[in-house]
Automatic annotation (TrEMBL):
Enzyme class name: transferase
Enzyme Commission code(s) on record: 2.7.11.1
Alphabetized UniProt keyword annotations: Transferase
Protein name: S-receptor-like serine/threonine-protein kinase protein
Length: 789
């Protein structure tokens, strides 16, 4: 009896720091504390990471399962150390503060929460005094959906990197703004997506993704019908349930029985053969291949003579265990042999295909081709593959054989020629080498002089076409473009450097194009042409306007772009056909991704220098694409700043242009911040007040004052859609204020802007974007027209 009492006493003591009551203002939760839902099914608090017990995750988890399965987390990318705490402050802010006192997570950047609570559904909420939720974890899921949870358009869930690593992973499920439900692989470490590997094809009709109380996950369509995503239904009163986008990119429906979690539905059923993007590594890393185990889970394996980059992280790919010899034209016969793998292939790495080679011929051809790393033979078909190997998979349906080319361990190369190791011998070779170098330089200089003289005498071409030609660009004749535009008949618009006309590709009369005809003979226009062709021709991104080709004939300079049917963003912000808030969010994110590509991810970093709504064009689906690289400054790989004359458009130009400072990509960040304010408010950055003083209203001043004074709702006026997403408006406003900081070092880089837009990191409260002297000398009426208009 005494033993039972002692056990009860110990249980009561252990629960002293745990409660299922609401979290009230002024409460601090430490590392050792947890809070329960009323039923005790869910818990909220800190969990040590399975891989590192000194790091902690702020999470919601199933409390009564043995493995404490996490269903939501606040800081997966930024685990905290002991000494961190969670506070619901007296002014109603919910803050995760690390051991240094820095705020790591702040889901609701405004005061007003009366209490926090963990509901029996597993939903963590911040509530107002009348118990209305003002923030809830169900609207910001991580990798898991729970019964009764509903996801609306523009909501995503993202896999973890590994099963016990809560960092953002490489797969995403997204209910798009157009109603299509899709799964994408991501190009880590960015948030850019490759081609979808699974989708519902419900463009225009999908409205909500619902996990109902009957245990069915379905997509609700706008006509009231639904598409079941999971095929099994189980009572939520009999089983714990969850749907999780696992680290291998499979969406799985789990139910919990006595012996643990059981998978009842997997979407897609075969991840290895489903992920097959044109770019990217596929379901596993580069040089590896994907194979399903007995539980239909992904295993990532290496081919012979390759080993994992990191044995603890098999999804990161494999590296060759040998040094790849140079393709120098030398005889490599005898250096390699083949190791066979049946029904394994890397279809993303093909560079040559022969449809009349048997296996023996396929081997021989690959053996004598220094580019060939693997050959795949099936019947009379032979494919040659180069490194890195991509989209690898093992499946019985391939009915073929992979031939992995590996070093022949029995091969002994001939020794290199030996030269006399004497001072006299070294002197002879040195003199011979210097003479050869001198002759080569004379020949080179002579060739250059000859080419220059020829180019000066030839007025038909001011620059060799090879300078501009990219792999997918075409050189058009002036006559072709004149016919394509019906004599340059229909004008689409005018810019500082020329006129844009509508036309149709000569070879594809149904493909509409935009032909930019640059002004003639002016030297700066020729430089404009060169810059545009060199910069755009090397860029390929879904948020950049595509360049089909050019004309460089005599005095004519023309550029041929894809046609953007919906024109510029400007008319959708300031005209009568204003876009809804959700679509404006998509556009802002798309532009940010395009800028990130220009600044960090394309072959040579590019500063655009004239980001504004007029230079953001929209296609049929209102996808934003950055255009007009005429003012771009193309930088070298290791160059991050440049000094140049003032460029850009008034109202979007950063302060450093006027201060004789080095110009960096931060000027684009500034312009993006101004444009983001315009996207939020649907108001111009500069607006004249028609009075005797002809004062100018500055949107940035008004926006910051609204933020500082807690009047953010005034920025969107009666935009009901924006007001319904007040947290999103607040987040975008804070990002914009960070971007327009006067000091370039205070502005974030575009990679961080993207992370903040995607909610991957917390947006800290921004400081004033302008100097104190400017703040107190400007007229208080400088934004009055904005309030009235």
């Amino acid at each position: 009896m005494s033993l039972i009492l002692l056990l009860l006493l110990l249980c009561n003591c252990s629960l002293a720091s745990q409660t299922n009551q609401n979290i009230s203002k002024g409460t601090t939760i430490t590392i050792t504390e947890s809070w329960f839902s009323p039923s005790g099914d869910f818990a909220f608090g800190f969990l040590p990471l399975p891989t590192n017990s000194s790091l902690f995750l702020l999470a919601v988890w199933f409390n009564k399962t043995d493995d404490k399965t996490v269903v939501w987390s606040a800081n997966g990318n930024f685990p905290v150390l002991e000494g961190s705490k969670l506070q619901l402050t007296t002014d109603g802010q919910f803050l995760l503060i690390d051991h240094t006192g820095s705020t790591v997570w702040n889901p609701y950047q405004s005061s007003g929460a009366a209490y926090a609570a963990l509901l029996d559904t597993g939903n963590l909420i911040l509530a107002a005094t009348d118990s209305t939720p003002i923030w809830q974890s169900f609207k910001f899921p991580t990798d898991t959906i729970l019964p009764t949870q509903v996801l609306f358009r523009n909501t995503t869930i993202r896999s973890h990197l590994y099963d016990h690593d809560y960092t953002d992973g490489k797969f995403e499920l997204s209910l798009q703004s157009n109603g299509n439900l899709m799964m994408f692989p991501l190009a880590l470490p960015t948030n850019l997506t490759y081609d979808a590997y699974w989708e519902t094809n419900t463009i225009g009709s999908g409205t909500q993704l619902v996990f109902d109380a009957n245990g069915t996950l379905y997509l609700l369509l706008n006509n009231g019908t639904r598409i079941n995503i999971t095929t099994s239904s189980f009572s939520t009163t009999a089983y714990y349930q969850r749907v999780t986008l696992d680290s291998d990119g499979v969406l799985r429906h789990y139910i919990h029985r006595k012996n643990g979690w059981t998978v009842v539905t997997s979407v897609p059923s075969d991840i290895c053969n489903t992920v097959n993007s044109g770019t990217g590594s596929g379901a596993c890393g580069f040089n590896s291949y994907c194979q399903l185990d007995e539980n239909d889970h992904r295993s990532c394996l290496c081919p012979p003579s390759f080993s994992l980059l990191d044995p603890d992280k098999p999804y990161e790919g494999c590296r060759a265990d040998y040094e790849t010899p140079l393709c120098d034209g030398g005889d490599q016969s005898g250096m390699f042999e083949f190791k066979e793998m049946v029904n394994v292939d890397w279809p993303g790495s093909d560079y040559e295909h022969y449809n009349s080679f048997n296996e023996s011929q396929c081997r021989e051809n690959c053996l004598h081709d220094c580019f060939c790393a693997v050959a795949f033979s099936r019947g009379m078909d032979c494919w040659k593959k180069k490194l890195p190997l991509t989209n690898g998979r093992a499946t019985a349906s391939l009915l073929g054989k992979a031939l992995i080319k590996v070093p022949n361990t029995s091969f002994s190369p001939s020794p290199p020629p030996q030269f006399p190791n004497t001072k006299k011998g070294r002197k002879v070779w040195l003199i011979t080498g210097l003479l050869s170098l001198a002759v080569s330089l004379l020949i080179l200089f002579g060739s250059i002089i000859t080419l220059v003289r020829r180019s000066q005498s030839n007025h038909k071409s001011l620059a060799p076409d090879s300078l501009f030609a990219g792999p997918a660009m075409r050189c058009f004749t002036y006559k072709e473009l004149e016919e394509a535009t019906d004599g340059f008949k229909k004008e689409l618009g005018r810019g500082a450097f020329g006129i844009v006309y509508e036309g149709f590709l000569p070879s594809e009369p149904k493909t509409c194009i935009a032909v930019k005809k640059l002004d003639r003979l002016l030297q700066e226009r020729e430089k404009e042409f060169t810059v545009e062709v060199q910069s755009i021709g090397q860029t390929h991104h879904k948020n950049l306007v595509r360049l089909y080709g050019y004309c460089n004939e005599g005095i004519n300079r023309l550029l041929v772009y894809e046609f953007m049917s919906n024109g510029s963003l400007m008319r959708f912000l300031f005209g009568s056909s204003r876009l809804g808030w959700d679509k404006r969010v998509d556009i802002a994110i798309g532009i940010a991704r395009g800028l990130l590509y220009l600044h960090e991810e394309c072959h040579s970093p590019i500063i655009h220098c004239d980001i504004k709504p007029q230079n953001i064009l929209l296609d049929d689906e209102l996808t934003p694409k950055i255009s007009d690289f005429g003012l771009a400054k193309l930088l070298g790989r290791n160059q991050t700043q440049t000094n140049t004359a003032i460029r850009g458009t008034r109202g979007y130009v950063a302060a450093e242009w006027f201060k004789n400072m080095a110009i960096s990509a931060k000027v684009d960040v500034y312009s993006y911040g101004v444009m983001l304010l315009e996207i939020i408010c649907c108001r111009r950055s500069l607006q004249m007040e028609l009075n005797d003083r002809e004062e100018e209203a500055v949107l940035a001043y008004w926006a910051y004052d609204c933020y500082r004074e807690g009047k953010v709702h005034m920025l969107v006026g009666n935009d009901a859609e924006a007001l319904a997403d007040f947290d999103g408006v607040m987040r975008f406003l804070m990002i914009a204020i960070w971007c327009i900081q006067e000091d370039p070092s205070q502005r974030p880089i575009m990679r961080r802007v993207n992370q903040m837009l995607d909610c991957a990191i917390v947006v800290p409260p921004p400081p004033s974007p302008y100097s104190s002297s400017e703040r107190f000398t400007r007229s208080p009426d400088c934004y009055r027209p904005l309030l009235e208009g």
